[in-house]
Amino acid sequence: MIIVIICFHNVLVSGQINKTLFNPDSLKSDVEFFFKTITDVHPNIYAYNSKQVVDEKKQYLLKAIDHPMSLFDFWLLFCPVANSLFDGHTGIDDYNVLFEEFRKCDNFPRNIVNIKDNKLYFIKGFKLDGKDLSDREIVSINNYYSSVIIEKIASFFSCESKDVKSLFVEENIHVLFPIVFGKSEEYVFRCICKEGDPDTVMLSKSNGINEYFQDFNEVEFEVLSQHKSALLTLNSFNISKDKSDEYYQKINNAFDSIIKSNIKYLFIDISRNGGGNSN
């Protein structure tokens, strides 16, 4: 597998997204550079897509870039096409900075869905207004079918493993759903009841489920009550530069607690970790 990273210079200003519009010729030049590079260096670029399909994807991008675009708008257009080539991880430097303002989006609930067999389900133990929605299948959100949501959001992540792609969707649906399908003050979830009939659930902050709108914790630590043991959960390695010090400090604090508490057994949980920055 080969890793291709597309770097765009002078697009970030003081850690914020530069709103500069790039002219079509400049963006088309980036597309040409991308396809030329992977064609030259990839050992088997046509393993998943024929040459005809790859050429069609390239022409699609070139034709779609017919007006000045921001970096973010170009990313929305470019990323799914590049990822569909299954050439490895592709992205724009720096992914975390690019999404910083959207990661602060707090009107779509986080960590409430699981994916099983390409279907969305509410997480185990999820309740709303006294109604037990645990493990209920979600048919649609705001009238978009779950299969469409999964396919579209997964297209923004380059990976051959369906399981890892599912983790990406679970962890990023709160960011990407409002971007791709539109931001709302309230989200309409249609799910299947135990009796098999459809049911409608309205989710927003007014529902009293604020804990599902809180920020994502990359590091969690807990001293367990039995056998001098502890649990260190690393939910992500995809840490932005401005949060790296805080990330490592949490890990250091965890090991300080391990030493002070004379912990003998440490369990490290990375079951929901989709990977990230190797540095």
State the gist of this model.
The protein is an alpha+beta fold and 279 residues long.
Architecture overview:
The longest helix is centred in the middle third of the chain and has 20 residues, at 162-181. With 279 residues, the chain is an alpha+beta fold. It is globular and about 60 Å long. It has eight helices and 13 strands. Mean pLDDT is 76; it is low at 1-17. Strands 3, 4, 7, 8, 9 and 10 form a six-stranded antiparallel sheet that branches. Strands 11-12-13 form a three-stranded mixed sheet, with helices on one face. Strands 1-2 form a two-stranded antiparallel sheet. It has helices at 24-41, 51-64, 71-83, 95-98, 100-103, 146-154, 162-181, 244-260; strands spanning 12-13, 16-17, 113-116, 119-122, 127-128, 131-132, 137-141, 144-145, 187-192, 198-203, 219-223, 229-234, 265-269. Strand 3 (113-116) and strand 4 form a beta hairpin.
